Amino acid sequence: MNFHVLTLFPEMIEQGVNTSITGRAVSKGLIQLNTINIRDFAGNRYGQVDDYPYGGGAGMVMQPGPVYRSYQSVVDKIGYQPRVIYLTPQGKVFNQKMAEDFSKEEDLVFLCGHYEGIDERVLEMIVTDHVSIGDYVLTGGELPSMVMIDAISRLVPGVLNNQVSAEFESFHDNLLEYPQYTRPAEFMGKKVPEILLSGNHAKVDQWRRQQSVLRTMERRPDLMEQATLTNEELQWIEKYKHI
Ligand code: SAM
Are 4 and 83 in contact (CB under 8 A)? Predict the structure, then answer.
């Protein structure tokens, strides 16, 4: 899978992605990171890529020309028009389902804005997906694109040592993950739940599933509506509510 990032700060993306699990995936060739410095496509000797907004107002706006030319360099390189994600607080809020959808692509372009954003005309011309990482405003699209690259990369086969862990994590089935424990069996007087030491895998699975449901009900009740539950589980929830 190839991630092409159009940015004014390529070093920020490179340092982030080339570290830890995603860094190992890059070294193994499971994912490829291609950063493109929009300033290299400024088209003037000062490297200027922004200008004052028409109509007045605070801040600067990134000009359409450099953004378009940097995008075109990717199209020329790969030979087709890939999906282009514009990171913007005005986009659809990123979630695990979107990560799964994006992970099916061979190439993805991330367009990182800065200052007051990017001239609307070039966005209309090249962007296929507007994505936000949450309802707050950041200084640039670099951190959001790194968040997305991280979440998408872990779904690429081979990136995680244990692929099963990605399949049963929080948001799979619209449920949060059950609580996890490791050694020691007792920590400052607090014991690991007995069932996890029993060696009975069926009972452990059942306990974990119940913990997932309980945790989601308590922490993210908004997810419950979309969760896929068996009739038995629905009855169990009803009983639990009356305890
Ligand atoms: N003036 C813009 C607005 O009100 O929608 C905000 C511009 S913001 C200061 C600069 C850049 O940061 C944006 O172009 C975008 O690429 C990125 N950005 C900021 N917050 C973001 C968020 N929550 N999700 C994704 N990208 C974000």
Answer: no
Angle in degrees, CA 4, 23, 67, rounded to 5 = 20
Ligand 1 within 6 A of CB of 137 = yes
Of 159, 204, 147, 153, the residue nearest 180 (C-alpha): 204
- Tell me the pLDDT band of 169, cut-offs 50, 70 and 90: confident
Ligand 1 in contact with 133 (CB < 6 A)?
yes
Ligand 1 neighbour 4 (Cβ under 6 A): no
Atom nearest to 94 CA in ligand 1: 24
Q: Is 144 in the pocket of ligand 1 (CB under 6 A)?
A: yes
Give the Cα separation of 53 and 61 in Å (integer): 6
Residues 6+ apart with CB under 8 A from 226: 174
Q: How far apart are CA 243 and CA 231, in angstroms?
A: 19
Q: How many whole angstroms from 222 Cα to the centroid of ligand 1?
A: 26
Amino acid present at 216: T
CA dist list (Å): 129 to 101, 102, 111, 147, 237? 12, 10, 10, 16, 38
pTM above 0.70, yes or no: yes
Fill in the DSSP letter of residue 192: P
Tell me how far the alpha carbon of residue 62 lies from the centroid of ligand 1, in angstroms.
12
- DSSP 3-state of 117: coil
Q: What is the mean pLDDT of residues 3-25?
A: 98
Q: 184 - beta bridge partners? A: none
